[in-house]
Amino acid sequence: MTVGADHGDPAVADIVQRHAIYDVVARYCRGIDRVDMDLVRSAYHPDGIDHHTGFEGSIDEFVAWVEPALRGLAGTMHTMGNHVAEIRDCHAAVETYATAVHWVESTEDPRNFTSGVRYVDWMQYRQGRWAIVERWAVREWTRSEAGQFVNPGVAGPRPRRDGDDPLYRLQSRLEMR
Amino acid sequence: MTVGADHGDPAVADIVQRHAIYDVVARYCRGIDRVDMDLVRSAYHPDGIDHHTGFEGSIDEFVAWVEPALRGLAGTMHTMGNHVAEIRDCHAAVETYATAVHWVESTEDPRNFTSGVRYVDWMQYRQGRWAIVERWAVREWTRSEAGQFVNPGVAGPRPRRDGDDPLYRLQSRLEMR
Amino acid sequence: MTVGADHGDPAVADIVQRHAIYDVVARYCRGIDRVDMDLVRSAYHPDGIDHHTGFEGSIDEFVAWVEPALRGLAGTMHTMGNHVAEIRDCHAAVETYATAVHWVESTEDPRNFTSGVRYVDWMQYRQGRWAIVERWAVREWTRSEAGQFVNPGVAGPRPRRDGDDPLYRLQSRLEMR
């Protein structure tokens, strides 16, 4: 197996793999939070399987399940923490801690909740890219936020799920360089 | 453009840039939380602009606005999560998730609050350093912590905003080596 | 001092050290959350000292104190954020932000709490490995979660503190490759 064999120093090859593996998880989170299903899908191989709270199935089934669920919410934020990849050739066991915040327009609604999750991912390197073959989204704890969220009260940059989100505008700016 | 051209392997140059860009955001957070305005300022280029909840302006105006706000609180903690930089030559679009906790002495006070933020940063590499040219602090959600915080009840290491914080004491220890 | 001197490019040596230092903190958190005291212990040198909320002492004393405390809880999650290492030869001053969630079976119990912590670590590189010589777990804020946590309501992957946790099953899968 020759993942990263084009780097003279094997330590560099290793670090490059780790960055690519981190990006898989970060891409998943960004895809979920911006409701960009192509981005979510890009985190999995086509035969990928997902085990979630309330869901079990293929990546195609996962997207069909999660997209309407996300569109029923005003927003989500999946914040990553500890990220550790154990790599052997083209296989990797990857654990990523995350805190997932979900909100709707009405602050009293029980659909406002935060959960602690460990993404436990079996990844493989195939045809030049790392992606998830099987994921367990291990739910650690769930906190109701009903009645906890408030309006910030003053104006400022607000998130969007379309091309006008500040991130997407900067990506366009970058591409025009 | 030759950012990192002194590294033989372009993958190394890339990773070195990514670490430098991560450090810009980490330095900002540390500066805010320790109320070290020189550190906050070092995260921006001199012509940097900041778009914040309740604020729009230059880095000089931002410091003038944020410092008294911070001094009116007992403490803050800006915890970073997902960090992704897209780099093209000496320009970068950088997204960093963060959870910002704010507290005052009285646990019942409405100024106790936590918010979810995405720092969306346009950075540039100029004169040997990456720094922010324009930032959008995108407020995702706000949770009131009035009546939620409690005293830990037992003694232990406590944070400080001066040279006696454990971090600053270790930095001094390191410099004396 | 020649930490990482086997890498031709000093930038590579530096990054390799940083990854190793990150792994020390990540290993500590995983050890605590899975109640794997060997893993916790591996984050410290044998003469390591820990300053915690409600505890001061050696790593041996820390393990003797923390293990029964953890077993008295249903689970914990120590999520890392900002991580910055300042390295000078074989010494390092390392700051890691973390959010620590603690829960018991009964959601009303006051032992349900979340705290914000900065791990301020003095690390040394000895006999081929970085580990903690002295740690200050600086407690920033404490939030009671009594009455806040809820059951997710639907089935899904759940955490375990033994070999059946999804992470440990993937590690076994990797070893069999």
What is the helix/strand order of chain A? Answer: HHEEHEEEEH
Mean pLDDT across residues of chain A: 96
Secondary-structure-derived class of chain A:
alpha+beta
Largest interface, C-beta within 8 A: A-B, 41 and 41 residues
Seen as an oligomer or otherwise, the chain set is homotrimer
| Apparent shape of chain A | globular
- Radius of gyration of chain A equals 18 Å
Question: What's the total count of β strands of chain A?
Answer: 6
Low-confidence stretches of chain A: none
Largest sheet geometry of chain A: 6 strands, mixed
The first-to-last residue Cα distance of chain A is 37 Å
- Helical element count of chain A? 4
Biggest sheet of chain A: strands side by side, in what order? 2-1-6-5-4-3
Task: Kindly estimate the percentage of residues of chain A that lie in beta strands according to DSSP.
Answer: 35-45%
Helix proportion of chain A: 25-40%
Describe the overall structure:
3 copies of one chain form a homotrimer. With 177 residues, chain A is α+β, with helices and mostly antiparallel strands. Chain A has 4 helices and 6 strands. A 6-stranded mixed sheet of chain A has the order 2-1-6-5-4-3. In chain A, strand 5 (113-126) and strand 6 form a beta hairpin. The N and C termini of chain A lie far apart (37 Å). Chains in contact: A-B, A-C, B-C. The A-B interface holds A 7-9, 12, 15-16, 19, 23, 26, 29-30, 75, 77-81, 98-99, 101, 103, 145, 148-152, 154-159, 165-167, 170-171, 173-174, 177 and B 8-9, 11-12, 15, 18, 51-55, 81-84, 86, 88-89, 91-93, 95, 97-99, 113, 115-116, 118, 120-122, 136-144.
